[in-house]
């Protein structure tokens, strides 16, 4: 696990984790709780529009990239060593594209979960402070009025 992941998910460092806790048997209740949490996350992500389209597009890109990789590899095997180098290089690039497409799906889901957690945290904070989200004091200005105000403040 990297430091960035530990910081992102507020996890303790691997050295700090007590080995006694992780070596104990897992109960059925713990497994059911984990499954319930996983189902809640999947249900919450299902409400987000556009995730399925992005997932299917990334799957298509990854599939095409792997097919291109296989074609380039077979082409490179039938060429001379001198001419095969650039073909194999392009085949490696196709694998990189496939990996990035798959990684994009995971990254997007993690970002969406992070945004949902931040929103839930903000909702909890606003409830603790007693602020009503419907009750907002705002002033509507047009662009020219705003520029005049900013001009006066800068002088």
Describe this structure in words.
There is one protein chain. This protein is an all-alpha fold and 155 residues long. It has one domain (3-154). Helices cover 76% and strands 0% of the residues. It contains six helices and no strands. The chain has helices spanning 3-8, 19-23, 28-46, 51-77, 81-129, 143-154. The termini are far apart. 4% of the residues are buried. The model has no long low-confidence stretch (mean pLDDT 77).
Q: State the domain count.
A: 1
Mean pLDDT: 77
Backbone structural class: mainly alpha
Q: Oligomer, anyone?
A: single chain
Give the low-pLDDT segments.
none
Biggest sheet features: none
Number of strands: 0
What is the terminal-to-terminal distance? 52 Å
Order of helices and strands: HHHHHH
- What helical percentage do the residues reach? over 70%
| Count of separate DSSP helical elements | 6
Strand content: under 5%
Radius of gyration: 26 Å
Estimate the global geometry from the Cα principal axes.
Answer: extended
Task: Describe the protein's topology.
Elements: H1 3-8, H2 19-23, H3 28-46, H4 51-77, H5 81-129, H6 143-154
Helix pairs in contact: 4-5
Key words describing this protein structure:
155 residues
